[in-house]
Please model this.
Amino acid sequence: MIGDYADQCYTVGGEPVAEDKYEDYKREVLPTEEDKKELESILAGSDWIEPRN
Model:
């Protein structure tokens, strides 16, 4: 990888995270399969966006 920050772990806010705690952190902040299914059901409907005038 290229750059000063390659192979380092950070939070979504840019704070450093220890490598041994990074997997747990990702499980906390990334969408779960349940989250993805819920989003899919929301986007499948047509009432989530206002129609054009």
About this structure: The mean pLDDT is 89. The helical segments are 19-29, 33-44. The CA atoms of residues 13 and 23 lie 16 Å apart. Residues 1-46 form one domain.
